[in-house]
Structures are given as structure tokens and as C-alpha cells.
Amino acid sequence: ECAGEPLFMLYCAIKQQMEKGPIDAITGEARYSLSEDKLIRQQIEYKTLILNCVNPDNENSPEIPVKVLNCDTITQVKEKILDAVYKNMPYSQRPRAVDMDLEWRQGRMARVVLQDEDITTKIENDWKRLNTLLHYQVSDRSVVALVPKQTSSYNIPSSASITRTSISRYDSSFRYTGSPDSLRSRAPMITPDLESGVKVWHLVKNHEHGDQKEGDRGSKMVSEIYLTRLLATKGTLQKFVDDLFETLFSTVHRGSTLPLAIKYMFDFLDEQADRHGIYDTDVRHTWKSNCLPLRFWVNVIKNPQFVFDIHKSSITDACLSVVAQTFMDSCSTSEHRLGKDSPSNKLLYAKDIPNYKSWVERYYADITRMPAISDQDMNAYLAEQARLHSTEFNMLSALNEIYSYVSKYSEEIVSALEQEEQARKQRLAYKVEQLISAMSLES
Q1: What's the CA gap between 418 and 60, in Å, rounded?
Q2: pTM reported for the whole predicted model
Q3: Which SS3 state, helix, strand or coil, does residue 146 take?
């Protein structure tokens, strides 16, 4: 209830910032990026256009203005329109771009269906270029509509009033190997059209296939030129990253103060360190980092789609990975020595990490200073959580997971229980042995 908002805002900010500039539909590279691997290196000329989209739910209500780029592919335009029209609807409930046709409406009569590939697609040598708005010469303030895809453009009942021309040579709008969804979610590699051996491209030809790497992308000189572009994007997103980190590393923002479980767990770790005579603060810090930020938060930062009903494109994924790496570096106790060969994501956040590290240390110290949680309070908290989520989890499955761990380490567990005073009073070692033998009989 507290970290959700800044995480969602960061996701939205990244998505919006990336879409302000060109994104290559094939390689997943973008003009605006935090990740050097996903940066378009060439200069791409482009213009921002506004398309007026007919409201799909009501043709007579006002048209919805949608910002697009003239270098966008038709699928990219469809996705931007869907984002604008259904912005308050969960991603899983929206129509999918692949099921919709984009119509360019010229006057009241003529409608042209635009597609990524059709008979007008330009092919030079063995490179086939995806169609963009510029290719079709769609102008600013054009009227467009998203309509459910026709199975074939040839068998539409021809109504006298409307001529709907489709310049499609075949029904499938995709000639990639792999479904459009897999194409969107992972950075797709170029797959030659199986029939003709033609390579598909959009903004930049992916020369890493066989040809000489363009200007050796690895050279450090190249990195320094692009670092300024990465830094500009980082600056735009800075506030959102700061807000998220500040919320995650703070005991104050929490709705129910800090969840009891975190305090309980951190105290347990400190207790274990005392018991085993470990007074190295770095070790204690690392244990805590491994338990909470690195095991839990990094996964959520990198995969906001686990929490929200959204779609994560490959460029958004690449940017979130850089944020997640920075988050991990903030929890580390080792000093990062930076040199000219350091990866760009380390250089990007080099000035911020000392600050973030101090937040982490303060956070752990604040938790240590909080009053201890009694077992009674902890049990009450767990009982309440169990009640709130009683329908969502399979208890037998969880017990089975614990059992498989217990049976694997049965000797160590039994001998530890025989040495513990409390455990001896409750004859826990004997009970565990009974349990294991009963389970093995059944199996």
C-alpha cells in the first residue's frame, strides 16, 4: 500500500519517456534509454504527429487525440492508440493490437487499412522495411479508427456507401517467426522471411548478422558520446527513481508503520550474529540486504507486471534492469572503483549511489532502534495475514515444501533439536522423527 504508487509511477515515466522518441520495432532499441545496449546509435529524423482517433465505443463522441511519431510502425501506432483510448483499463482487458485494424479515414467515404506489411512495403536487396506512418504519408491531425480485424480484406460485404481499401497481399499481418506477443515482449532478433530469405528492418539495420559491426560498438570513444544521451534520460527519470528508493528505504512512509515481519526478521538476524560472535557490521548488513531488498524488491522493480496488470516492452525492461542494478549496488557494502572501462549503468549512477547507500544504512539502523516485537504480537500478525489471504494460498502445498526441506536435512535438524533446551522439553526431535517416518510410509 505504500511502495505500489512510486513503483507504478516509475514504470509510467519510463514508458512515456521511451515513447517520446523512436523505438525500433525489430531490435527494441530506442533513442531514449537508460541502457546502453538498447540505445539507437544512428541519428533518426522524426516528427511528432497528433492523430485524431474515432472513439471506438461511440463514433459520434469527440475524437481522441493521440501523440505518435511519423517513424512508428503501424503496430506501434495501434499500441499507442490503445494506450490512449483504454488508459484507465487493465492491460489484460484491453483489445490487442494484433486483433485490430488501423483505418485511415479520408473524407466520409474512403478508408484505407494501414499495415506493417502489404504490397507497398519497400524491399531493397534482401532487406524489407516495415511500413511506418511516413511511408503512407499520413499527415498531422489525420482521422484514424481502430476496428476489429477482418479475417480477409476481400470478403467484406461491399456496402455502397463505404469503400474500404486494404492493400494487403496476405491475411497475416506478421511475417516474423513467432507470435506478435512474443515479438513485443522480448527483444526480437531479425528472422529472415522463411520463403524469400529477406531480412526485416524498421529504423536501423541490424548489422551484427554477418556483416562488420557498425563502427565497432564496443569502442570506449563511442560510449562517451552516448553517455551524455543516457544521462539526459536519467535526469528526466531521476525524481521517480529517488521517490521509489526513498519509500523502500524508509520506516516513516509505511502505512502500518513498518511491517512487523521485517523488524522481526532483522532482529532474528542480529540475534544470530550475536550468538555466533559475528560483529562485522558488513556481514550483518549483507544478510539483511539478501533477505529483503535483493530477494524481494529487486524482483518487483524488474518485473512490475507481477504486481500490476500492465505490459512491459523490451525497452522498458532494459531500463528497469538498470534501475534494479543501481538498487542492488546501493545495498552493497563494497566500494565500486570506477574507471573508463566500467559499464555505463555504473557510471550513470556513480554520483547517486553513495547517497542511496546512506539511505540503506539509515534504514537498517532505524529498524534496529525500533522496539522489539514479541512472539505474541508476531503470531497475532501472522494469524491476521492468514485470515486475510485464506483463499489465496494452498496450505498443503506450503507444508509439503517445508517437509521436503526437513527430510533432506533431517539428521542435522534432529540433532539440533536434541541440544536445544526448549525443544527437549517439548520432545520436538522425537516428533520430527515420527513425522518423517509417517510420511515415508505413506509415500
Answers
A1: 79
A2: 0.81
A3: strand
